[in-house]
């Protein structure tokens, strides 16, 4: 029997419309998005949204600020929603763990997506981040507050979340050429999210 981590892609694909309807459009993440956009090496910038969902509200915010977004998600149905909303931007169906776009981006965003991966898959993502990062690129992602696993629920199905220890995230970032610009654990001003903002050296 597959683990909850292995079921994530199928869960989002099966319930793509439900997830889109349930995803709030109020952007409590705006302060952190502004920090991310402020760390981009140039503007307008090319942004890679990894696990982009239905493109709202995160990608929309970046687009409305004048940036070019390429969104990647493993759910074809979510990518279809993205294409219907923002047809002038690039939307690709791909598992982030196998992502190899042959392009570099000024900003990489993995908000509420990367943390659905198991521990080893998260470790393997950092060279993938590096391979898609332009010079001085900004990287922002969310994680858990400490090493562990947590199982939530979506549509009465288990929803997996995994996290490494913060010291390991710092080491992985450093090993792959990123300096941490800002990190906060369970930010009360951002819905309790644990956030990492880094820049490629």
Automatic annotation (TrEMBL):
<dbReference type="GO" id="GO:0032259">
    <property type="term" value="P:methylation"/>
</dbReference>
<keyword id="KW-0808">Transferase</keyword>
<dbReference type="Pfam" id="PF13489">
    <property type="entry name" value="Methyltransf_23"/>
</dbReference>
<keyword id="KW-0489">Methyltransferase</keyword>
<dbReference type="GO" id="GO:0008168">
    <property type="term" value="F:methyltransferase activity"/>
</dbReference>
<dbReference type="InterPro" id="IPR029063">
    <property type="entry name" value="SAM-dependent_MTases_sf"/>
</dbReference>
<protein>
    <submittedName>
        <fullName>Class I SAM-dependent methyltransferase</fullName>
    </submittedName>
</protein>
């Amino acid at each position: 029997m597959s683990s909850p981590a292995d079921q994530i892609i199928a869960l989002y694909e099966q319930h793509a419309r439900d997830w889109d309807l349930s995803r709030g459009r109020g952007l409590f993440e705006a302060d952190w998005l502004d920090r991310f956009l402020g760390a981009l090496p140039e503007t307008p910038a090319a942004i890679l949204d990894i696990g982009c969902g239905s493109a709202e509200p995160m990608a929309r915010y970046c687009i409305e600020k004048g940036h070019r977004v390429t969104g990647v998600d493993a759910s074809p149905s979510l990518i279809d929603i993205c294409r219907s909303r923002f047809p002038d931007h690039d939307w690709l169906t791909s598992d982030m763990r196998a992502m190899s776009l042959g392009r570099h981006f000024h900003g990489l965003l993995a908000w509420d997506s990367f943390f659905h991966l198991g521990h080893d898959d998260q470790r393997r993502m950092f060279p993938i981040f590096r391979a898609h990062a332009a010079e001085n690129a900004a990287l922002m992602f969310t994680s858990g507050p400490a090493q562990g696993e947590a199982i939530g629920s979506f549509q009465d199905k288990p929803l997996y979340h995994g996290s490494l220890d913060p010291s390991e995230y710092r080491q992985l970032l450093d090993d792959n050429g990123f300096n941490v610009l800002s990190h906060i654990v369970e930010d009360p001003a951002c819905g309790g999210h644990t956030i990492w903002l880094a820049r490629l050296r």
